[in-house]
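Protocol step 4 of 6: structure prediction from sequence.
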Amino acid sequence: MSDEHTEEQPRKRMRLAGPDEAENLDVAMADAPKPAANAEHEKELRFGITAYINPDKPGFSGILKQRYTDFLVNEVLPSGHVLHLDSLDLPPSLNDGEAAGKKEASAGSTAPAQEAQQPKTQQEPVKDSAEAGKPTQEKENGAEEVESDVSTKDVQTLQSIFGEATTASILSLYSNVLRHPDRKRRDFTPVTSEVIPDKDQRTLAHQSIRRIFKSKLETSTTEESAGPEDHNKISITAVGARKQQPANNNRGQNGNKNQNAKGRHLWDELGGEYLHFTLYKENKDTMEAISFLCHELKIQPRSFQFAGTKDRRAVTVQRCSAYRVQAHRLQYIGRKLRNAKVGGFQHCKTGLELGDLHGNEFVITLRDCHFPGEEGLSTVAERAELARKIIQQSATEFKTKGFINYYGLQRFGTFSNSTSDVGKKILQGDLGGAVDLILAYEEDALLDHLPADAESTARIHSRDDRHRAEAIKAWKNGKLGTALDKLPRRFSAEKSIMSHLGRQRNEKDFQGAMMLIQRNLRLMYVHAYQSLVWNVVAGKRWNTFGSKVVEGDLVLVNEHKDKEGGVDADDDAEVDQDGEVIIRPAVDDRAGNADDFDRARPLSKKEAESAKYNIFDVVLPLPGFDVVYPGNEIGDFYKEYMGSEEGGGLDPYNMRRKQKDWSLSGGYRKLIARPGPGVEADVRVYRGPEEQLVETDLERMGMTMGGKEKNEAHADVGAGEEGEEGAVEEEEKIAVVLKFQLGSSTYATMALREVMKAGGLMPYKPEYGGK
């Protein structure tokens, strides 16, 4: 299989302007993009994106992502440091360590035969916690000594929660886990604490065990059914080899268990079993790059961890981790990546977690910008001066007042039937209706039969969208084989449904069809409905009360304990058995969010008027069975909107469903978002659409993709071509470059919307010629 074929799997949907937008955006004409802007504004209204913080301030218009280098995204680490790709080389420590590792592996090629003569210890049960710590016992079992990495401060923390005796047992259990990484959970004797009656103390216990022991131990709280003497005790158990090691079935890179055991010394010398690295990509999906690396390394996608996928039509830099992959191997394979690079290698003891991401820094170039009042200006210099005045004012307002934290349009899909429409059907229990919406297509897509290389400036549908429509039509005509052959790979939900329902005995088994869809896609539909409700309610809240904090507004309990005084939070509120959300998801399942288990409470009239709280503290719930709703008219509006025909006739207080994935617990989201420090705005004058206005990380290193010259390295299909000899020079235009940081759950397009106002943001629509 060729590298090209492998790297393209799985193909993902490019985020483009929708099919109802203008057929052609001629970047040489100032008013050409307006139809697309109007269509974009109509979409915003459809999905509840209606209000502005400063509706009366002047905005401007501009084209977004005309070139993918116009959208730069760099992760912001918890330290506040902005992640950049600064080297593709191995650090000296890894060069030396891995060279020694290779030499040891070569010299020890006969080790498996020798080790085979030793008695096997894997099946022997681990002794109880009192005996497990005895060195003599471990030596008799043939186990190697392992030094605990728990700090004195962490030991003191555990002792303050569990007491000295239980802490000693926990540490002994952890030592056993380190000594026997290949053993299963059942081989380790769990530790049970004394009763911990305080809920906050139990939560701290769950969190501390997870943090201190790097997810090698897990906890659960005993239920009331255990009896009054055993209720509210915490059981600490080993995760076991199967959960701890996400790849290779506990085998080494060459599939040899003995080599894997011997290799533990190598990983310790390198710094840990997880290789952290920086992934830089241009105009490419995160999963495209990860899938290619997996294929070349012969490992499963779950071996990789990262904080989230990044936009395709962009230049992005993100931190990733891979389990038991050596840096020199990843560096070598990384050279084969197209439109992507890997660097910044470092071995660590733990994988990447969601808590390792603070947010993202965006550098966004908006092209062909126009501003109110420019009509009477004769020179581009005068227009640029006007632009600077408006932009600086907008940037100041944006920095201090923020923007309504709407879910962006990408949350709702690119087809006429949105993901929220599908989610609404699912929650109504109409799975047949949900299937019909997923398999719907526009008739216009069937009429677009221009070949991929045809010269056309009016490509309404991509080739993939056309093939999708043809496949679904063939399926409806009973031609399952033809349909599956024609359906592009990226439409996995459609494939799952058609494959299942295409069999005669399953033709009405809509639930079976839906359950075959990859879980994160199934969750996407119902989460999109929650997002729609949140957007609509957020607009209502802002239009009703504005920036004033009022009685009944919700605030997060954990954020404001110092302000509560004698006010009691909801003592009956329960947390999950681990005290927090799981924060090390697999690559194929990223539905969890650290905010999902936050607790909120309504403010009293006295608190709302105390000036202790401001609008940036206010949260709104996503509808679910485990949230509280605002204690004012906004809480009533949830019931009014969700119960309406537009809201699906649903009840916000009845969000449990028989199917677990569609039984929604809910969550909370800040009403207003603010950018981080360092908001910058600049105005540039340029001529051609091929002119790049910002530097990528790769260019800062003096490099480009594929050895191209800088001026052509990032040329886009549809981004404009060099004029023929003797052509008239293009007129000068205005571009705006914005730089700002946002939290990880915040949409940059919604931030731009506040700055540019209604109809100002115009997504660029490349001419379709393939995917």
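Step 5 (inspection) to follow. The chain has five domains: 3-76+360-405+676-763, 92-97+247-357, 123-179+182-244, 439-517, 521-670.
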